[in-house]
Structures are given as structure tokens and as C-alpha cells.
Specification:
single chain; 7-stranded mixed β-sheet; two-stranded antiparallel sheet; 9 helices; 288 residues; binds S-adenosylmethionine
């Protein structure tokens, strides 16, 4: 059969027209892609960034000066990491450090440390300090982001491309947190926006959400600062996305409420009404 280029030209399906129309109406999508984005109204890589901004505006879990170590689990494409970097004083609209100032760059997005340990020593922080890293200069604190997908670099954010559910990833995270926050190092805030690929099969999506929540909670037990050690009743915070379902409500009752001083369910305005997602904001880790 002769080659017909026209056969490659797809017509727009009705579903994509619906999607395009929804995007055009969506105020958060318009804000995100505004060509007038400036220092005052920066553009974000994801619509999700507005959810985090909105939740933090009300509950201020990122705003305290004692917040020094923040983990962003399921970070790509990077909207939440951008927000955290701004909150910790990393100005991503400012000129990024020149390569000559960054004797070794921040861990680059796309690097899988567990498979290429010779490329970067996560325990060597001399270059972060040299480039105005966590010890002052451009911003404060340590921000560590993890995703199994690639994420382009953000000033002030160390990115690990890895599957959070793999045991090796926790080993790597532990060494990064411990070294940069001191030997007894723990995270001040753990953010989790991870989601499996939605299948449309509610049973499967709930299972996925439960697996992620269980795993993040186990991790949190080992790596979060307690309210007592922070010296603030709401110190040590976990924000975790979940699929709204009675089983996740049981998860909250069983694991979150007994272990945090304050637990609340949030559905941000920026989260689409038809989406089944919600967030648990848990503040004040009691320490086990
Ligand atoms: C909703 S997106 C996060 C958006 C992000 N908060 C932002 O503002 O740009 C969910 C992310 O979770 C990641 N993810 C899901 N399961 C993961 C896993 N087991 N390990 C690492 N990342 C995972 C996905 O690759 C995806 O990038």
C-alpha cells in the first residue's frame, strides 16, 4: 500500500476538545502559564503548586524559621519544590549560581544515585555550601525531592530520581537527611503528592493510595522531627495526598490521629471538584 502522509495527521478527538476547553477555563492553568509571570507572580511548573500555596497560606506549616529540612515525595514536574524553595528563601527568579560558582552542581535531575553512586557523593555538601547552599547565602535549609520521573533542576533543591517504594531509596534519603541536618538529623516537613497512575478502576486506585500512604507513614515514623524536639506543638509536619475512601479514613484513625497533635482533611480549591483526591495535614509528631 502506498505511503500516505495524511494518514498520520490525526483529527482531534471529542475527548481532547473537552480537555482543551476545560484547560482554557481553568484559572489555575491560566495563572501558571501567564506570559506576565514575574517575581511577584511567578509561573509554576504544575497546577499542583497552587494547592500547596493555598494549604500553606491557611496552615503555615512551611513558614516557621525552624523549618530547615523539607522532603518533597513525588515531586515532578516540580511545582511543590518551587513553592518550598521560595518559602525557604531560594529565589528561583534570581540569577542562578554560575557553573564556575557551583564547583559541583546540585545533584542533577535524572540522576539515579543508587545506580550511579560514583557520579555524586550525597554526603559531600562542600559544594552546596560554596554555592550559598543550606548554610545561608541564597536560601536556607535543605530541600530534597524524589520522583521516579525526570525533574529539571530548581535552585536549592536536591533531586533524586528513584522509586520511593524501593528500599534503596530510603537508604539514600536517610544519608542525605542525616548528614545535612546533623547526625540525629530528621526532616521538619514531609510532603507527599505521590499518586500511582490512575486506572479508572476505583479498587485498584484505592489499593495504590493505601500502599503509598502506608509506606510514607512508615518512613515518617523514622525520619520526622518530633514536636518536642522542635519546641513547637505543631512542629514536625506531614502533608499527604490520598484517595478519598472509607479505607483511607481508617488509615487516618489508626495511624495519623494517635501520632500527631493535629490532623485535618483538606480539599484545596485548586483541586478539581471531580477529583477523588484529598490531603491529610498532620502537625505535631508526638514521637513514638
Ligand atoms: C501529582 S504528581 C506530583 C506533582 C508535583 N507535586 C508538582 O507540584 O509538580 C505525582 C508524582 O508522583 C510520582 N510518583 C508516583 N509514585 C511514585 C513512586 N513510587 N516513587 C516516586 N515517585 C512517584 C509520579 O511520577 C508523579 O510525578
Amino acid at each position: 500500500m502506498p505511503f500516505r502522509p495524511s494518514a498520520l495527521v490525526r483529527t482531534k478527538k471529542p475527548s481532547s476538545s473537552v480537555w482543551l476547553a476545560r484547560q482554557a477555563r481553568d484559572p489555575y492553568v491560566r495563572l501558571r502559564s501567564s506570559p506576565n509571570a514575574s517575581v511577584a507572580a511567578p509561573s509554576y511548573r504544575s497546577r499542583s503548586a497552587f494547592k500547596l500555596l493555598e494549604m500553606n497560606e491557611k496552615w503555615h506549616f512551611l513558614d516557621h524559621r525552624d523549618v530547615q529540612v523539607v522532603l518533597d515525595l513525588g515531586s515532578a514536574p516540580g511545582g511543590w519544590s518551587q513553592v518550598v524553595a521560595q518559602k525557604l528563601g531560594w529565589d528561583n527568579n534570581a540569577r542562578p549560581p554560575r557553573m564556575s560558582e557551583r564547583r559541583t552542581p546540585y545533584p542533577e535531575a535524572g540522576t539515579n544515585w543508587s545506580s550511579k553512586p560514583e557520579d555524586f557523593d550525597p554526603l559531600d555538601i562542600s559544594d552546596l555550601e560554596a554555592s550559598g547552599g543550606h548554610s545561608g547565602g541564597l536560601g536556607r535549609g535543605t530541600i530534597i525531592a524524589v520522583d521516579r520521573l525526570h525533574m529539571s533542576p530548581i535552585t536549592g533543591v536536591q533531586f533524586i530520581q528513584a522509586d520511593f517504594l524501593e528500599a534503596d531509596t530510603e537508604v539514600l534519603l536517610r544519608s542525605l537527611i542525616a548528614h545535612q541536618a546533623g547526625p540525629a538529623g530528621k526532616a521538619d516537613v514531609i510532603l507527599c503528592d505521590m499518586a500511582g497512575n490512575a486506572t479508572g478502576n476505583a479498587f485498584h486506585d484505592i489499593e495504590d493510595s493505601l500502599a503509598i500512604c502506608d509506606s510514607v507513614f512508615e518512613f515518617t515514623k523514622r525520619h520526622i522531627r518530633s514536636a518536642e524536639s522542635v519546641g513547637r506543638i505543631m512542629g514536625g509536619a506531614l502533608l499527604i495526598k490520598h484517595f478519598v475512601h472509607p479505607l483511607l479514613y481508617l488509615f487516618r484513625k489508626k495511624h495519623l490521629e494517635p501520632n500527631f497533635n493535629d490532623v485535618r482533611y483538606i480539599k484545596p480549591n485548586a483541586s478539581r471538584t471531580e477529583s477523588k483526591e484529598g490531603y491529610f495535614l498532620c502537625r505535631g509528631w508526638k514521637g513514638l
